[in-house]
Amino acid sequence: MLLQIRSSATQADRDALHQLCRELGYELRTLDAAGRLVELGGEGAPAHRSRFEDLRCVQRVLDAGEAGELHARGDRPDTQVAVGDARFGGGAVSILAGPCAVEDRERTLEIARAVRARGATGMRGGAFKPRTSPYSFQGSGRAGLDILATVREDVGIAIVTEVLDPRDVEAVSRVADAFQVGSRNMQNFALLRELGRQRKPVLLKRGFSATVREFLLAAEFLLDGGNDRVVLCERGIRGFDDFTRNVLDVGAVAHLKRATHLPVIVDPSHAAGRADLVRALARAGLAAGADGLLVEVHTRPDEAHSDGAQAISLKELEGVVADARALCALDGRELVLPPSAPTNGRADVPAPDTDKEAVA
Amino acid sequence: MLLQIRSSATQADRDALHQLCRELGYELRTLDAAGRLVELGGEGAPAHRSRFEDLRCVQRVLDAGEAGELHARGDRPDTQVAVGDARFGGGAVSILAGPCAVEDRERTLEIARAVRARGATGMRGGAFKPRTSPYSFQGSGRAGLDILATVREDVGIAIVTEVLDPRDVEAVSRVADAFQVGSRNMQNFALLRELGRQRKPVLLKRGFSATVREFLLAAEFLLDGGNDRVVLCERGIRGFDDFTRNVLDVGAVAHLKRATHLPVIVDPSHAAGRADLVRALARAGLAAGADGLLVEVHTRPDEAHSDGAQAISLKELEGVVADARALCALDGRELVLPPSAPTNGRADVPAPDTDKEAVA
Amino acid sequence: MLLQIRSSATQADRDALHQLCRELGYELRTLDAAGRLVELGGEGAPAHRSRFEDLRCVQRVLDAGEAGELHARGDRPDTQVAVGDARFGGGAVSILAGPCAVEDRERTLEIARAVRARGATGMRGGAFKPRTSPYSFQGSGRAGLDILATVREDVGIAIVTEVLDPRDVEAVSRVADAFQVGSRNMQNFALLRELGRQRKPVLLKRGFSATVREFLLAAEFLLDGGNDRVVLCERGIRGFDDFTRNVLDVGAVAHLKRATHLPVIVDPSHAAGRADLVRALARAGLAAGADGLLVEVHTRPDEAHSDGAQAISLKELEGVVADARALCALDGRELVLPPSAPTNGRADVPAPDTDKEAVA
Amino acid sequence: MLLQIRSSATQADRDALHQLCRELGYELRTLDAAGRLVELGGEGAPAHRSRFEDLRCVQRVLDAGEAGELHARGDRPDTQVAVGDARFGGGAVSILAGPCAVEDRERTLEIARAVRARGATGMRGGAFKPRTSPYSFQGSGRAGLDILATVREDVGIAIVTEVLDPRDVEAVSRVADAFQVGSRNMQNFALLRELGRQRKPVLLKRGFSATVREFLLAAEFLLDGGNDRVVLCERGIRGFDDFTRNVLDVGAVAHLKRATHLPVIVDPSHAAGRADLVRALARAGLAAGADGLLVEVHTRPDEAHSDGAQAISLKELEGVVADARALCALDGRELVLPPSAPTNGRADVPAPDTDKEAVA
Fold first, then answer.
1. Co-location of B49 and B185 in the same domain
2. What is the pLDDT of residues D196-227, one digit of tens each?
3. Which of B355, A214, A83, C51 minimizes the C-alpha distance to D257?
4. pTM for the full model?
5. Residue C312 to residue C281: CA distance in whole angstroms
6. Touching B: A residues 207-246, CB under 8 Å
7. What was the ipTM of the complex prediction?
8. CATH no. for residue A38?
9. Domain of A260?
């Protein structure tokens, strides 16, 4: 491990550093004349890195050396995570689609059948909804879970649904093929610890302004807990402009594919916050290397109970799936489709209509 | 209520709007020729505002009219919140000081006595620590709570400590005079709902990149739950530079004092992330109108188990308290001190040393 | 035009508003009971919108109505801008490639020939370099322009080069097929005014943290000056993380294609700031709808005088061009190639190597 | 100098590094086993630092050692810069106040007299205005300069006015006591080079999203050009929220006072973008250590030609000056007043009215 020491380090600081080295079994070697750089010889462990980072005199870990973390790419191949029929990573690309919130049984079944028929292998849909205001629709809760259970059985589609409270993990586990952790909870460590003990995949969304390292360390909570089926989801970061809801960070997608072996998908709907840009962002995400998509789709966006402005129609979903098919072909990757999905070619899908739309 | 309608609104969208008006008892009046602006006549309620905002065709609520929320200033005077001897708002300013994390009993007692002797009416200190990495020190947990209980009794200082998990609320409640909700949990709604049911004050920290409206609506979860003793804490927002850990948003402090009746304090330690700037930021926060401070102080920063780089020494705390005294005097506000605190005048406190310090 | 009036508006404010309406020939109609919304009936003009926005009492222009600006999409088809053989917009996609800075004649000729042979119709390369530090290499200046003139003639490739100073416009004009305005100068209005008077295309890069509206209004300075050959370039916005130099805003690309008729290209090199992500970002930009690319390429990145870490090799350029070809085919767009460029198919180009690369 | 080398460095990269060391006379010593850290022994020079930073293989300069820059604090005391009667730094605090734009002669004279009578030693006011839209009022140009010349002579107040175009430097120089460089031009290097050759002070505003290092290096262009009378102005950085126009970065003020010997002032008006928060932000800036204020003041804000919403009234200016007086007293600093300014005590100035104001 290589450490940079603060210029303000006192003798007491240096004593504390030496003491920690002795405790953890590292041999310290000062590298430069001013004592700003030290090399620690030893076996290394992720936990040790954190101990050194917590010392006041350590400005930065320049190289973690052997103290590798579980998420790190290192020499590892892609980890492929299966969620029902969906598979992410290792050359497999899948699409999860569905409503923002589970509303009633009929509508949810209708959407599930429709998105599956168009190529989605999993359905997203919230029973528990994190909403900015206490007065907004908070989801239908346990009743919503029952609806999802029905959908799962009747339609044969994997269910991905959000869990907000560690006390709901068990109930959600009974109906979900994968837990979703939302952006607001990326660093809800009580929840992460609980999910680390589960044996079901977790779709972990990046926080509004989480750095990539914070994102990976949130995943590390799950991995360290024993759950190695983690799918990372880039869903846009907070920016300074308001023409989109968030800024889809395609550079993070490309970087994450290098930095970790975990699969990475994108959520173009929450990034855009408006239906007309979802297809373009879905394409951009896949082109940057994403292993899948999480898309809001509604059969009647005008009647959606929440986030209707960003839900795309079934027709638009067809365009997204056609794009995914083409982009996968370009890279020799597989677009995973539901067992009986139609194999319609691209030809009959309209090109994105980017030209004439009025923008307020 | 005044609403702006999206230019893309369809007839189905408008039908849904009319339907909702009928359901909630509002009379809709279209204002302009193009139908982009509508006025809703009716009694108003916060919950209704959210319902309208959730409609796909509503671009923005231009004026919430009677649909006021519980946090809103309106005509209300300052709400003063007492936490043990500390009081915030309504002309009262108090200082909470202490270590990042509770370590051992002796050290914690030593710090509590020391900060109380210098003017702090409350002690901060985490038993449960939210840490970015699973390998970092996560706090001493329930053992830490026991230590805090001892400190509270022996030293006679109010205890403010963080709660991360709704399942820990009861245990924390037994020793804390106020619950702290950290930045990472500002939108942990399961936790907020649980704390809304408590009858102890909550110190709610602003999320890393939370807008002021999101911050106020997080507080609204507590207020709507029945807990009206909420203290807002500005602790710096995420920025693009790295010379400080965060950007202390003094404009938010000034704005919040106008927008809400709730007290607002600042945490200069997490904003700065480095001890040498804490005093300057504490002053700036109070000068902008803050009702108090939350400061990390340690008797031996070099030995702190976490965040040692931002903890100030007791001597520096004396400077912070002296500044607070002077700034309160300037505004005719009261700096609340512990019953037996010394009343040393400003004269013997050194001016901030801003000139010569080396900066890496 | 629809205006929202501040709640703090005084009678004097309202008098000023009425006075301006009389002066510009607008009929004012107050829409709501509280007088917060007004509709202005009249012919409309972009200049009028600005006059109203400058009034203290105007909070926001809700709808600009007839006051449309020159950049606005409205009902207009794509404007196609030609730069030598390169064409941008209206279904045409072109690639500009070259070194960050013009170094010596031989190296520059070598790069120009090499990028042209691989499909670039234009060469980028700075003679005048905007550098953060006064001590960094500032470009070779007028000598660099001479080199570019040689390249243009000998290689038959369009030249795009940056101009920093209004006093250099004439000299740059003699060798450039298009002027480049860099991010730092997006709101250098003296320069924009001067370029608005020119009859050569301008490649305008988005500022580090410019909103889309600010970007479009910077273009409006050029259009208003009489130069309607403007190419917008998204090059990444400033973010809070450091794994890339900037955040490529693909949502802005998709939005701009709707909001304006001007062509939009992306610069993946300055967005990434590291060569290994350039290809992924180039793909993402084109997939989001960009009309072209501006890429840093160097035959010897290790010897580049500036920004060597983000320059890609010729081999990597081949991958970028192959991707562009495939993505254009997907959308029925044309990848414009230099007259004699080889038409090598995609088959012999390696897939992006995203798997194993070590990331510091 | 200590350098961190990228893990991706090739042999060619290392050869280039050794070659540059030979050229500049540095002795290179590799510090660690993996060759990631090197120490360069030699005399050091700012220009050399930049040369090494430009090498592809250099990830970061960990310690600049002797390669100090002109702005760096080092062991230097505060540089005090005088602008007419105003003085900034070295314990002196001054206030510059005035309208956003110079309008007509009478109004400008009226404002100048009024702000001087209340304690401002200098007047700000733009003849050349940088405006986001080409259709907005661009200032009165050379006619505005004539008005400023009259004001300067008749009122006896220092004039600070913006210059946008290197070709206007001479004309502006005839009437200005200090040049202002606006945020949009912080990295307009053609302008900075021209001003580096002048012998009048420059008030340099921080760019919308400039890092502190970029800000200091922009100042370095002036210093390196020979003009050592530079006043830095923090005016708020771009954030993600819209309740203020920008985020006043008080941490930058505190940091800059440590990192450089140059004076630092704040512009609370552009940070707030709304008059009601200007006083609070002015206080926060001074409390954080600022050496002065730049405030927009207008005798009739409702009639202002631009930015009227952020201009404060004369009565509000009295509050700002009273605060400045009190905060200077607190720190033993001098509030510089115009020769004949009234010395009214604080008692008769109302406390900031933060309680009841309606916020939209």
1. no
2. 999 999 999 999 999 999 999 999 999 999 99
3. B355
4. 0.93
5. 12
6. 207-210, 213-214, 217, 220-221, 224-225, 238
7. 0.91
8. 3.30.70
9. 81-348
